Amino acid sequence: MKVQNVMEIVVRDVIGEYKEQLNMPCTCTHCMNDVLAMTLNNLPPRYIVDQANSAYIRAVHQADRQGATAILTKVAWAAGIVAENPRCENMNTMKKPSNE
Question: What pLDDT score was predicted for residue 100?
């Protein structure tokens, strides 16, 4: 039996839509997955067992303006934390101290 958290799809869509507005210093896969994980850990899951229900659940979240705003708020919060504390190799190599 396959169970899927539709909230993951919804959050991925929101991150993709607002990626440029998040003003992150790095948008590599690792950083964006950190944003996704932090956001999902702070939202209630919405599990389905039938893929046919996925579109319906996603549409409900998009139509619910308060719910959509709550998701975007959580994404922005997570993006802020990841931007301040990136764990990817891209940012770690940029932070290396100079030998001056």
Answer: 47
